Amino acid sequence: MRGIDRERTRWFLRNILPHEPALRNWLSRRQPVGLEIDDIIQESYAVLADMESVEAIRHPRAYLFQVARSVIVRHVKRARVVPIHAVEDISQFDRADAASSPEQVAIDRDQLGRLAKAIGAMPPKTQQAFVLRRVEGLSQREISTRMAISENTVEKHISRGLRFLGDWFGHGGKAVPETSMEQELEISTLDGGRRNQSTH
Amino acid sequence: MADVETSRHIEEKAADWVARLDRGPLSEADSAALERWLDGDPRRRGAFLRANALSMMSESGQALGPDFTPQAFATPNPLRHRGMTRRKWLSGAGGAVAASLIALGVSAPAGAITTGLGEVRLVTLEDGSTVMLNSQTSVKVGYTRNERRVHLLYGEAYFTIVSDPHRAFLVEVADARLSASRAGFGVRKLDGLPVDVLVNQGSVALGRVGSPKPLVLGANTRITLPQADGALPVPQLVTGDLVTRELAWREGKIAFEGERLDQAAAQFARYSRTRIEIRDPDLASEPVTGLFSAGDPVGFSRAVAAIFDARVEQQADRVILSRRTNRT
């Protein structure tokens, strides 16, 4: 199954994910009209997920920036009306900040510390479920018994926890998701039998 | 399809799938549903890879050990403090995070970062502060547990500093020292010219060897430090427009508003090997206004020639501008 290969995931975790904050930063300065940063990032990661092999990639950071650039070029070309300043922006992608930078090493070394902080900032129920699963190693079923909530709810908390980590690590360990409090309330209503409509 | 599904929604679905996989083996129906989902919009596969990686990363949480108390890393439980406003809670969280950062003793390796001719580079530092380096610039980053220090060796850089109540951010340039907690400012140190500081946002304290007390510079102020002695001159208040123009290099541009053509042309020498020569003194003193691409001296010359009815002649590393009337 695509995108689920553990080796690819591990490679991605080590070589690509640490550069996401820098990529976001870079994109935020050069984002062409009509393209969301998250769209560009997801599409870039899809390219990395779909590659036959990543062995040939010597400089993952530079490669990531290059892929992101090509994603934008593709979109700009596809758009019927090309805004003038989008075209101008593209010429500047050649000067990409793609070289290695000090933050990279620091992230590797301190990943555990950052994980601890991210977990520490999670909404309480999600935090409890996440700690039981990832720190104490209980299964989702065991957690459901321990917390006296349904297994589906545990699964929701794990999913929220992962998204929380995504926000946290993707934005350089600063972002607290705006809706974390509401999400907590939303999940707690799940057990009361009132399921919220789609999340949009 | 691609235009109705938001990236946020995709991110949620991807996390849901990874959480489902974390629960145990998928049923046949779920497995097929996941395959179908992944076959849709390509962004889904990217989001799925990312969510898997985050999940894998969180597996290292076991290393935190049984004594791990998340509360030690965060604010008091927000639900137990319903009386607190959201804003208070968030700022409290910031403080706690900063405190634990100290406890963990994070520090980035020291080293110089240098840009080449025509290169503009954004460097994100470990705390989220950024330094943008203009063409031919060198900075040295030294982060310790007590302070965040960046030395501007030469060139021009723009600093965007995020606050950290426990670690001051210091920028050293020549015999001056700037400190700030939350600010955006540019510092320039070019050959043969005095050091120039331009504050865009927040405030910056400027100290200098030989001057007793630091000077606080607010937003939209500029100060030029004479090379001779350590005295601090009076800072100038400048307009927001001027700040924007002066910082246009961050977008790879040069902005002019009424500068002499020869002075404007000289600016391009910082970004490329191509030199612009102006043959006529009266052409050289014409005022130039506009936003130009820093890496394109030829484009600039053509644009200027069109306005002033001049002639452009391009040689190897030179662009020569002259009055048309000179030819006859």
Automatic annotation (TrEMBL), chain B:
GO molecular function ontology, one term from the record: sigma factor antagonist activity
Keywords, comma-separated and alphabetical: Membrane, Transmembrane, Transmembrane helix
Ranges of residues in domain FecR protein: 113-204
Domain FecR N-terminal: 13-54
TM spans (from-to): 89-112
Pfam families: DUF4880, FecR
PANTHER family: PERIPLASMIC SIGNAL SENSOR AND SIGMA FACTOR ACTIVATOR FECR-RELATED, PROTEIN FECR
Name assigned to this protein: Putative transcriptional regulator, putative
Species: Novosphingobium nitrogenifigens DSM 19370
